[in-house]
What does this fold into?
Amino acid sequence: MAKVPLKTALAECRCPQCRTGYMFKYPALNLPKATAMNETCAHCGLKFEIEPGFFWGAMYFSYAFGVAISVIFGVLANYIFNNPEIWVYMVMIFTPLLLLSPLSMRYSRVLMLYFFGEVSYRPE
Ligand SMILES: [Zn+2]
It folds into this structure.
């Protein structure tokens, strides 16, 4: 098995232990099921939810993503529309927040598992 780089494994939501199996059952664009996770890795058998409630910690990452998206699109709205009315900010911020929420939820869990799961990479 070829060695999968960390960035590739993170971007593709792969298992942190083997970097081969996928953490999620469906692609991100399958909106109703975008956050449905596999219980274990299909390749190495790692249990993704390390302990009960492990992914509650992902809300901190999700919060950070939300703040980042809000600031980026708020500044963008101000720059593009030159200090517009408040409803323009609301539309410019809440639309991307809503559209990017499946990705935010997925990558929050991925980052939680990679950074706090204490799972090390074992290529074999
Ligand atoms: Zn695995």
In short: The chain has three helices and no strands. The first helix runs from residue 6 to 11. Residues 15, 17-18, 20-21, 41, 43-44, 46 surround zinc ion (CB under 6 Å). Residues 48 and 86 are 42 Å apart (CA to CA).
